[in-house]
Amino acid sequence: MVREADQARDEAMEAQNLAESARDRAAAAESAATRSEQGRREMMERLRHLESIVCGAPRSATPSREEQGLWPTRRQRRQRGGSDYAPAAGTQAPAQESSQERRVQTHSGRNV
Fold this sequence. Notes:
Blueprint: H1 2-55, H2 65-68, H3 74-79, H4 99-108
């Protein structure tokens, strides 16, 4: 009788441990599924963002200065014979002076 009670208690504890382990695994699987779904949503959001950039949709409600036509775009500067980063052709670029001239001007007002 005592032996049967001990065996029943051991089996009940084992079942309880198995159930707890199953609950832990189910919670971990649910958490992983939630993270996976969240990651999928973030990737879809990034994809939509990239598609909007590639397809030319506005990035914001306020157009950029280039989009407003206030500044020429890099493509426009290249088409006019300018560099990607230089002022557009037809605008006054600052006069270039040699590094030697800059050094002379920098030191001319000081006792070196």
